[in-house]
Amino acid sequence: MAKHAVLGALAADDTFCGEIRYDEPLSRHTTLKVGGPARVWVRADSLSALAAVLSACRDQSVPWFVMGRGSNLLVADAGYPGVVVTLGGDFKQWNYDPEAMEFTVGAAASLPRIVQEAFRQGVAGLEFAVGTPGSVGGALRMNAGTRSEWLGSRVVRVTSYKLGTGLVSRQASDVEWGYRHTSFPADEVLVECVLSVNPAEQALIRAKMEEKLTRRKRTQPLDDASCGSVFRNPEGRSAGALIEGAGLSGARVGGARISPKHANFIVNTGGASAADVKALIDQAKQKVKQHYGIELTTEVRFLGFPQQA
Ligand SMILES: Cc1cc2nc3c(=O)[nH]c(=O)nc-3n(C[C@H](O)[C@H](O)[C@H](O)COP(=O)(O)OP(=O)(O)OC[C@H]3O[C@@H](n4cnc5c(N)ncnc54)[C@H](O)[C@@H]3O)c2cc1C
What we know:
Helix content is 26%, strand content 27%. The chain has three domains: 3-89, 2-Layer Sandwich (Uridine Diphospho-n-acetylenolpyruvylglucosamine Reductase, domain 2); 93-204, Uridine Diphospho-n-acetylenolpyruvylglucosamine Reductase, domain 3, CATH 3.30.465; 221-303, Alpha-Beta Complex (Uridine Diphospho-n-acetylenolpyruvylglucosamine Reductase, domain 1). The chain is of the alpha+beta class. Flavin-adenine dinucleotide binds next to strand 3, helix 4 and strand 13.
């Protein structure tokens, strides 16, 4: 099928609520600044636009992938031969109900923005996420947070969109929430959630957020392009300490480097390819296995690789 034929009817439709680009470099849409082109990149600004895109993908037998802010993604240098769907417009909206003490948030809203808004409203519960980049949709899918505090524990309900079914609403208890794990089906796009917060002294919220941010700045390479932690921490261990112990702190392949500040971060020092980053991931896995007999598992999601490692 000719490249521009994919979603061609939508691209030609002036009333389409969003944007469609062909051969869009995904390095522009990932925090690692790595990744080849998407055959088609689409921003859907409304539910009807999202429905139209997914139904065109089904009719044209083209695979699709939903991307948030690309802060937990490694995209292959060859890019993605399907449609990358991202949410914007209506999905960026949010509101706060002070009586219910609940935020209703669209999946395209920025998580840091909602954390700041909770602080501004003087309500607690989201401070753990301060400094975690990404969209609310990506954070829900990944159950963003730490081993002890994560977004799932604040969720009241989540709404997703499934082609052929429409909107699906789940209470938090209908979803499995684990350390960087959720049970959302892969063929659903998360579109909105309700998060609960609780009253607290603003000074205490500020103190907790400042403490977390200070720790992040001290321990993480925040000035460099990265995708955050590459590996999950094995039970009771720190992946960064294991990689450092295996002698890989500061190791380089091409433009990618295992951060000397935090060995669970791989940074793009300029011009890194996805192959460079993947080579470091493989080295870290291999060396940690050799040294400690521990099998590291990746937290970062892969897109466009032959095998989703
Ligand atoms: C400097 C830095 C620090 C970080 N610190 C943390 C941290 O402390 N804790 C933590 O958990 N993470 C951390 N991360 C990782 C990342 O920010 C989070 O995982 C974030 O929640 C991912 O959101 P995103 O919108 O960027 O998702 P993406 O990276 O775009 O996507 C991640 C996954 O979510 C899926 N997804 C995205 N949107 C939707 C949607 N609407 N519906 C269904 N699926 C969707 C994607 O398909 C993909 O599988 C950090 C990253 C960086 C760069």
